[in-house]
Specification:
single chain, 238 residues, globular, 9 helices, mainly alpha
């Protein structure tokens, strides 16, 4: 009988550092249970925040030479900091767009100078949206959404070309979960605006983190570079 692909991926988890695997599962289960039974508990936000930060720590430890991945995760952490702890939603989405661009850059192997070009381009686009009376949040969110879709399309292509490589699977699953998260964010936004029934807000708000945290853990494991330091001595995941 043919073994399902998802079961092969599940078995590969045994190659991941058990300490990190325990940390990820513990964080995920803790904040999900907290959100279910204590929906207004402030500690849940702290746990989520720490969990995202640890993705940077993990990527730096395991893929020390993959600066683009680390920078993308850092931009993600900064965006979460703004969105979770401040009312500046536009700034948070703006920083998130840089995170998606860094992922796009590493998936397509763009030159380093592309970040400077992108920063100038998106700033110019932002200025144009203000000049022509467009809502800036929608303009930046459109750029962000297109980048995320491109990252998913590229990760699907890479996965099809090298389906046996664990990192390409992590990228594919990670960006797929990321899009599911952002769909929930969009549903929550339109529900808050009264377009959808208000009773959907708690459900979609809960689902945001059901998808978001796994997406970051998976993406942190999506580097195509060889593990560094002591981690490189372990069996490489394939």
């Amino acid at each position: 009988m043919r073994v399902p692909t998802w079961w092969k991926d599940y078995k590969r988890l045994s190659y991941i550092d058990p300490i990190w695997l325990f940390i990820w599962i513990a964080i995920y289960v803790t904040f999900l249970l907290s959100d279910i039974f204590f929906p207004n508990f402030w500690g849940s936000a702290v746990i989520k925040y720490v969990g995202i930060f640890l993705c940077i720590v993990y990527a730096h430890q395991k893929y020390r030479d993959d600066y683009t991945l680390q920078l993308a995760l850092l931009f993600t952490f900064l965006a979460d900091t703004i969105l979770v702890w401040t009312p500046f939603t536009l700034a948070g989405v703006y920083v998130f767009s840089f995170a998606q661009f860094m992922h796009l850059s590493r998936l397509t192997k763009l030159p380093n100078i592309s970040l400077c070009i992108y920063a100038c381009g998106i700033s110019f686009f932002f200025a144009l949206s203000i000049i022509f009376g467009l809502e800036p949040i929608y303009a930046i969110a459109t750029v962000y959404g297109l980048e995320l879709i491109c990252n998913l399309v590229i990760s699907v292509k890479n996965w099809r070309q090298n389906s046996k490589q664990f990192s390409t699977r992590c990228a594919f699953y990670g960006f797929l979960a990321f899009i599911c998260c952002d769909i929930c964010v969009a549903l929550r936004f339109v529900a808050l605006d009264g377009v959808l029934p208000a009773f959907l807000i708690p459900t979609v708000s809960f689902l945001v983190w059901v998808f978001y945290y796994p997406s970051q853990v998976l993406i942190a494991n999506s580097s195509t570079m060889k593990p560094s330091g002591k981690v490189a001595k372990n069996k490489q995941i394939r």
